[in-house]
Automatic annotation (TrEMBL):
Pfam short name (any one): GCSF
Domain of life: Eukaryota
Subcellular localization(s) per the UniProt record: Secreted
Main subcellular localisation: secreted
Protein name: MGF factor
One Gene Ontology cellular component annotation held by this UniProt entry: extracellular region
PANTHER family per record: GRANULOCYTE COLONY-STIMULATING FACTOR
């Protein structure tokens, strides 16, 4: 546990000295950060709710018990290294958050197929993710930062699985990876509020 705490803390210690003074006093930017911190917190809660459903209904609760099966799965894990590097830049971090949201948006179709009784929650989550991505894009445009426009239809392939069990484990890891992604994105947004 101590090692995990150190590993999670270390990147943020390096991030603490990141220069973004040009944004720190901007009231609109601070308002954007506060609103989207809340939005990210809501999305994290919805993902946690789906993780509980996977645990309760499929009995898939512990990641360490599923690591061997994971090796057989092709599960995308969106990178966020630009959000906790020593040379932190809002533009590249925001771009990675948006790209990751797009990847997980498509991957959630796997969860909807796995948990048809919870399709409404998955669809709400996908809508919230699209709105968060749009908020970030709008803020980047307002700040004059470079943005990438993604097509509205999803171009990313949905993961495929060789068996029903692999589908279940794949769903578990999609949610676990997405939760880690959201935690990093949340910490990056929170860090920006303290500059």
């Amino acid at each position: 546990v101590l090692l995990l705490a150190v590993l999670l803390w270390a990147p943020w210690r390096a991030l603490h000295g990141a220069p973004l003074t040009e944004l720190s006093g901007d009231q609109d930017f601070q308002l954007f950060l506060q609103r989207n911190l809340e939005f990210t917190r809501k999305i994290r809660g919805d993902v946690a709710a789906l993780q509980r459903v996977v645990c309760d209904t499929l009995q898939l609760c512990k990641e360490d018990e599923l690591l061997l099966v994971r090796q057989d799965l092709d599960i995308a894990q969106a990178p966020l290294e630009q959000c906790h590097r020593r040379t932190f830049q809002a533009e590249t971090c925001f771009s990675q958050i948006r790209a990751g949201l797009r990847i997980y948006h498509g991957s959630l179709a796997t969860i909807r197929a796995l948990l048809p009784g919870h399709a409404g929650l998955v669809e709400t989550l996908q809508l919230d993710m699209a709105n968060l991505s749009s908020n970030i894009q709008q803020q980047m445009e307002d700040l004059g930062l470079a943005t990438v426009r993604y097509p509205t239809e999803n171009q990313d392939p949905i993961p495929t699985f060789s068996s029903h069990f692999h589908h279940q484990v794949g769903g578990f890891f999609i949610l676990a990876n997405f939760q880690r992604f959201l935690e990093t994105a949340y910490r990056a947004l929170r860090h920006l509020t303290s500059l």
